[in-house]
Specification:
This protein folds into two domains: 9-58, no CATH class; 66-334, Aldolase class I (TIM Barrel, Alpha-Beta Barrel), CATH 3.20.20. Helix content is 36%, strand content 19%. It has twelve helices and twelve strands. Bound molecules: iron/sulfur cluster. Iron/sulfur cluster binds next to α5.
């Protein structure tokens, strides 16, 4: 199908030209569908000069996700959208208000459920149903952007940190990121898009090799293999040293700091020994470490209190000596925080 939401831009242009459609027409069509959310085939024919004979190849009417519920946090303005796929599955998308007034970043899902199954994550506890199609990821962007625009704000970034591990759905997730960053697609700057992974080494290397314009965030979960295996047993086959080696290759190839995300769990991974282990693991690889409080609606895992976190940060500044940032994970009252997306509007 010639759906510009479902093909990486260069493949979309190539497929359209094979059908005899001019590149300018294809770009206009993509801008109408993704940029302005125009879905009336007559407007594509009249406004974009799409030959009528091509409508069937485009697949009109295009499939859509259905927005079933919108929730807004009373604490911090985070919003969560509950969307339904055509086969009846629930997908969640989070709207993250940024410090810059009127700007919003979107947290997109790439799978329904997640086979990685991290112990502290609601997505990991739900059944892993399937990968999302490229158009389903792009449609999250379009629908969430409509909500943002309706309130007079604008979308300036996107993070692939919602439900699922994007690198387990590499082709589609990266194609969606390309569509979202394309000037005649979502028109979001490439560096304003972040792809998050729990550390799939082959895919990190592929991402580096392909020289994608997006930012990479690697979630370490713990500083030692033993503790990581407790929190993410399905990842035990890949040692942290191998992940850091891939992170280092990425940092050196890009000449940048690689972003490491670290979910902080009281009594489990925020001791002084963890800070030391983290520093040893990272060594001289240039990184930025983002600390995120765990949010676990079951109460099994809790974030460190202020004293434990302060001691961990002190130890990190002594041992690691690299930038450490505390990342806010909001929308806890509407189950929109990191690790709480489970295909329902509220818990
Ligand atoms: S934390 Fe990420 S990788 Fe782990 S189960 Fe949740 S969505 Fe999957």
């Amino acid at each position: 199908m010639l759906d510009p939401r479902n093909l990486a831009p260069e493949r979309y242009l190539a497929a359209g030209q094979e059908l005899g459609v001019r590149p300018e027409t294809l770009r206009r069509l993509s801008a109408a569908i993704i940029g302005r959310d125009e879905h009336d085939p007559e407007s594509w024919v009249r406004g974009c000069q799409v030959p009528r004979r091509v409508l069937e190849a485009i697949g009109a009417p295009l499939p859509r996700l259905e927005l079933t519920e919108t929730r807004t946090s009373s604490r911090d303005g985070f919003q969560k959208l509950l969307l339904r796929t055509r086969d009846g599955l629930a997908v969640e998308t989070v709207l993250i208000p940024l410090h810059k007034q009127g700007c919003v970043s979107l947290c997109l899902s790439s799978q329904v459920g997640c086979p990685v199954g991290c112990a502290f994550c609601a997505t990991g506890r739900m059944p892993a149903r399937r990968n999302l199609e490229t158009w389903e990821i792009v449609d999250q962007f379009v629908i969430a952007r409509n909500v943002v625009r309706a309130s007079g704000r604008k979308v300036t970034g996107a993070v692939f940190m919602g439900m699922g591990e994007p690198f387990l759905n590499y082709e589609r997730a990266l194609a969606a990121a390309e569509v979202i960053s394309c000037p005649y697609g979502g028109a979001i700057a490439g560096p304003a898009i972040t792809i998050s992974t729990v550390g799939l080494v082959a895919e990190i290397d592929r991402f580096t090799r392909e020289n994608r314009r997006f930012r990479l965030s690697i979630s370490l979960i713990a500083a030692t293999d033993a503790r990581r295996s407790l929190l993410a047993p399905n990842l035990r086959a890949t040692p942290l040293a191998a992940i850091m080696a891939a992170a280092r290759r990425h940092a050196l190839a890009r000449r940048t700091r690689v972003m490491l995300a670290y979910v902080c769990i009281a009594g489990l991974n925020t001791g002084e020994d963890d800070a030391r282990a983290l520093a040893e693991l990272v060594a001289d690889t240039p990184v930025r470490l983002d600390l995120i409080d765990v949010t676990d609606p079951t109460g099994r895992f809790t974030p460190p209190d202020a004293a434990e976190l302060a001691a961990f940060r002190d130890a990190l500044s002594r041992e690691l000596r690299q930038p450490v940032v505390r990342r806010y994970s909001g929308g806890a009252d509407i189950a929109a925080a990191c690790g709480t997306l489970a295909g329902r509007a509220v818990t």
